[in-house]
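Hey, I was hoping to borrow your eyes for a little while. A protein chain has come my way and I'm curious about its shape. Take your time with it, there's no hurry, and the full record follows here:
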Amino acid sequence: MRAVIFDLDDTLVDHTSAARTACVQWARGQGLAGTDDELAVRWAAIATPHYERYQQREITFAEQRRARVREFLPHLDLAIDEAADEAFQGYAEAYHASWACFADAVPALRRVRGAGLLAAVLTNGDHAHQRLKLARVGLIDEVDQVFTSDEFPFGKPDPAPFIGTCARLGVDPAEALMVGDSLVADVQGAVGAGLHALLLDRRDAHPSHSPRISSLEELRFSTDVR
């Protein structure tokens, strides 16, 4: 093995908690009723299909944001793109302020590099946005390279980003391990592209899957892997 490729959201960075905190704070400011759980669940349910459309290149990154906010805030007149962008900005600012990496992220990345392996990130998302996230949480200098889905024809689980990432790292797919929290996007996508894959199951959502780990603390490498 020559490289370990990590997913970003909910693997290295606690996206779910940040999105929940931001959504509830922002929604209250927009006058929406409901419990915190109801608001967070509704926002996530709206976000998922629009983000998947972006990964399939049916819409742009900006367009998926506009679609999400228009559906979430139907009581506002957001027909004009500028109005939708402004409304979404309130959520984005709260989301950015809530970013935090998991406590096991930095030690795991350092173990990878300490073993003489390349540590990379492959994430579905906008390059500038995801690099900003890595910088804000203190991870940008802990990885060798960052790859985002907008650099490839399609996002994960399509084979293109996995194969493209390995090519840019200068390693064969069979020499790379993908670590991520999504069984479909990270694990099945990576295996389909010829990589090894390890599921990070922090919330015990896939107890029957193997191999899996519940924390990056379980990710260990020998220093003589090469």
In short: DSSP finds eight helices and six strands in the chain. The first helix runs from residue 15 to 29. The longest strand covers residues 118-123. Residues 40 and 153 are 31 Å apart (CA to CA).
